[in-house]
Amino acid sequence: MYNQARYSARESVLHRTDPRVKLIAVLALSLALLNTAPLGLFIIVIFLLVVSLSSKIGPLELLRTTRPVWAFFAILFLIYIFTTAGTPLFSAPGLKYISREGLYLGIVQMSRFFLLFIAASLFTMTTSQADITMALENLLRPLRVIRISSHNVALMVSMALRFIPLLLQELNVIQEASAARGADLKGKNLKDKMRFMVYLSTPLLLNVMRRCDQLTEAMNARGYHHGPRTYLYELALSRTDYYALGLIAAIIVVLWYVG
After folding, report:
1. What domain range includes position 194?
2. What are the beta bridge partners of residue 99?
3. Does residue 34 share a domain with residue 138?
């Protein structure tokens, strides 16, 4: 099972930062990444590297969190270089469809998605699930004006984050059980692999439904009910949090200027 981007309890400034500040920072960087120049991407790389080192998370450890999306990045890169019209990069036969503009656009777009994933990984590795839920509920409280419960939205997101590693764990158990019974996990061709994935879907769905029933029973046993919730402690911005907000605002202004 692969779940490297889970929360890692460590002693650092980023871990102690208010989860609302970190969530706002990730959202702001995500919007800035959509329309920034290569120079802006380089600035974000330096910023994320500094933040990673200050949070005691090594660059290689952070890079390993992107392993599940490497195939997506490769497909995205190929789509851009083969579908973007422009000046041919090579004059050899069969390579005339690879353009300089496509290669440039593929690298830039892939870098944007890569940095976005890195920023999200830093957020999940330095913020516990309980803090993420509290931050979401706190930031979504204005939705009460239109009668949308911020707690329900935060609870759904929290459950989704909780079930992702469980889903991977169940899939890993099913694959190991199938391999122990002599199933060919690799398959000889694409058709065999697709057939095996179909076979996996049924027990995986049943196990997920069983997990959902267990979660429902646990919530009922603990007296869960709709309505406002209380927490062990309330979120409060410190002086460091205000400094962090100012730093994020300054970076966004710089990215807007260079982009």
Report:
1. 150-221
2. 88
3. yes
Please, which pLDDT band fits residue 172 given cuts at 50, 70 and 90?
A: confident
Nearest to 105 by CA among 135, 85, 130: 85
Whether residue 216 sits in one domain with residue 128 = no
Q: Is residue 155 part of a domain?
A: yes
Within 10 angstroms of residue 164's Cβ, the number of other Cβ atoms is: 13
Check residue 248 and give its pLDDT.
92
Q: Are residues 24 and 117 in the same domain?
A: yes
2 in Cβ contact with 168 (< 8 Å) = yes
Confidence (pLDDT) at 1: 41
Pair 99, 89: CB distance under 8 Å: yes
Distance between CA atoms of residues 82 and 90, nearest Å: 13
Local structure of residue 109 (DSSP, 8 states): H
Residue 250 pLDDT > 90: yes
CA–CA separation, 185 and 174 (whole Å)? 11
Q: How many domains does the chain have?
A: 2
Q: Name the more confident of 95 and 61.
A: 61
Q: How far is CA 10 from CA 16, 21, 132, in A?
A: 9, 18, 16
Residue 141 CB neighbour total at 10 angstroms: 14
Tell me the pLDDT tens digit for each residue of 24-37: 999 999 888 888 88
Could you tell me which residues come within 8 angstroms of residue 221 by beta carbon, excluding any fewer than 6 positions away?
Answer: none
- Whole-prediction pTM value? 0.76
Give the integer Cα–Cα distance in Å for 225 and 151. Answer: 11
**pLDDT given at position 8:** 77
